[in-house]
Amino acid sequence: xxxxxxxxxxxxxxxxxxxxxxxxxxxxxxxxxxxxxxxxxxxxxxxxxxxxxxxxxxxxxxxxxxxxxx
Length: 70
Description:
Elements: H1 2-8, H2 20-30, H3 39-48, H4 50-69
């Protein structure tokens, strides 16, 4: 799980709401234009969708494990 987060926030680890990748993902999921997403919007999204994000991170971890195996 942490491996995905580490890669997704590369260059933006102390301010993940500025990550172009995460902003793009939020825009496609939430519908808010990426350039309008600020720190408050980011943390509100993370809190409101925490269960879905946990499921996604678990899935990403499983896919990473499968791809490493072969």
